[in-house]
Design brief:
With 169 residues, the protein is an all-alpha fold. The protein contains 8 helices and no strands. The protein is 72% helix and 0% strand. Helix 4 (68-90) runs antiparallel to helix 6.
Length: 169
């Protein structure tokens, strides 16, 4: 795994510097970078380096906005952040959470939860839209859609089903 990561990172550096294989007729720089970013991201994720994994998954998703794997995994890692932020928020006593004027710590915790929820929605709504017709993710897609529904209801309580229009192909 470490050799794969080293090779991939060296290759990324060379490609980003404008190098390309001499013997390849059909060269797609972005496609190759997306592939290499995902390799490094998965290795970092496996090694519990989620921040670094996110950086590489986000790079892959930015280079190829139709890459459902990068969208799914980016959303998955941000969902972990969301769940952690929500758990942290729940550690505050109920009176502090429901106070008319919450403390700065509670406000910061709410902002962390909201920001994480928004970014999960950003990536997973794109994922759901792209997999609406060609679902290669099976029941995982259904789980993502349920999570999106719950998050959307939390973030948009006045239009809890509004995400449905956003995921139509």
């Amino acid at each position: 795994a470490s050799q794969t990561a080293d090779f991939s990172l060296r290759s990324i550096k060379l490609i980003e510097a404008g190098k390309k294989p001499a013997s390849v007729q059909q060269w797609n720089q972005n496609e190759t970078l997306v592939y290499l970013y995902q390799i490094v991201a998965r290795l970092e994720d496996h090694n519990n380096n989620q921040d670094t994994a996110l950086q590489y998954f986000e790079k892959a998703a930015k280079l190829d906005p139709a890459n459902v794997t990068a969208l799914f995994d980016t959303g998955r890692l941000y969902q972990v952040r969301y769940l952690s932020a929500a758990e942290k928020y729940r550690t505050f006593p109920e009176p502090d959470r429901s106070a008319a004027d919450p403390s700065p710590q509670v406000k910061a915790a709410v902002k962390e939860v909201d920001d994480a929820a928004d970014i999960v929605l950003q990536y997973w709504i794109k994922f759901l839209k792209l997999t609406a017709v060609n679902n290669t993710y099976g029941s995982t897609r259904e789980e993502v859609e349920k999570a999106v529904g719950d998050l959307y209801k939390y973030r948009q309580p006045d239009a809890p089903d509004g995400y449905q229009a956003l995921i139509k192909p």
